[in-house]
């Protein structure tokens, strides 16, 4: 028995979200699609220090075409793999890295209990029995007499 499937044509849609987490990082996305299965959208990321990446894209019969905008340190404007990458990062010294502050180590003094004298009484030594021996018979020999 074969199954018959009916595929619905693409339906227009639109969705999006905007979220900020507990660390101050903001992530957004929005996308629209049409009846011809073409899509236009963007997504972005902004961390608590202001580092930003925005990707705008079009996806259609000719493929996925993104354009990236960022201010991430160490990036430069370029066009790798036919995807324009625009950087507004400042050239020059890298940002100062702030190291986490750790509390000073706590001095720990080892405390040992007073040794306790232990008197052990040894019992009688263990005696092992002699190993068992195996009595065997003398091997039999066989001979065949030759007729002359």
Question: Describe it for me?
Answer:
- By secondary structure, the protein is mainly beta.
- It has a domain at 13-87.
- Helices cover 0% and strands 30% of the residues.
- The protein contains no helices and 6 strands.
- It has strands at 13-20, 26-33, 39-46, 52-60, 63-70, 85-87.
- The chain has a 6-stranded mixed beta sheet, with no helix packed on it.
- The relative contact order is 0.09.
- One of its GO terms (cellular component) is chitin-based extracellular matrix.
Q: What is the ordering of alpha helices and beta strands? A: EEEEEE
Could you tell me the mean pLDDT?
Answer: 82
Strand order of the largest sheet: 1-2-3-4-5-6
Task: Detail the poorly predicted runs.
Answer: none
Q: How big is the Rg?
A: 42 Å
Topology record:
Elements: E1 13-20, E2 26-33, E3 39-46, E4 52-60, E5 63-70, E6 85-87
Parallel strand pairs: 5-6
Antiparallel strand pairs: 1-2, 2-3, 3-4, 4-5
InterPro entries: Chitinase_insertion_sf, Cuticle_Struct_Prot, Insect_cuticle
Organism: Ixodes scapularis (Black-legged tick)
Keywords: Cuticle
What labels describe this entry?
single chain; 148 residues; mainly beta; six-stranded mixed β-sheet; 6 strands; flat
Short summary:
The protein is mainly beta. It contains no helices and six strands. The protein has a domain at about 15-85.
């Amino acid at each position: 028995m074969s199954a018959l499937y009916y595929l619905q044509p693409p339906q227009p849609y639109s969705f999006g979200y905007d979220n900020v987490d507990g660390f101050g990082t903001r992530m957004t996305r929005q996308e629209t699609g049409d009846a011809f299965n073409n899509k236009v959208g963007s997504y972005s990321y902004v961390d608590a220090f202001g580092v930003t990446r925005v990707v705008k894209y079009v996806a259609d019969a000719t493929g996925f075409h993104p354009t990236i905008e960022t201010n991430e340190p160490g990036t430069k404007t370029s066009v790798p793999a036919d995807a324009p990458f625009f950087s507004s990062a400042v050239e020059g010294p890298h940002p100062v890295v702030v190291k986490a502050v750790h509390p000073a180590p706590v001095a720990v003094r080892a405390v040992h209990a007073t040794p306790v004298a232990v008197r052990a009484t040894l019992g009688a030594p263990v005696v092992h029995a002699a190993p068992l021996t195996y009595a065997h018979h003398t091997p039999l020999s066989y001979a065949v007499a030759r007729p002359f």
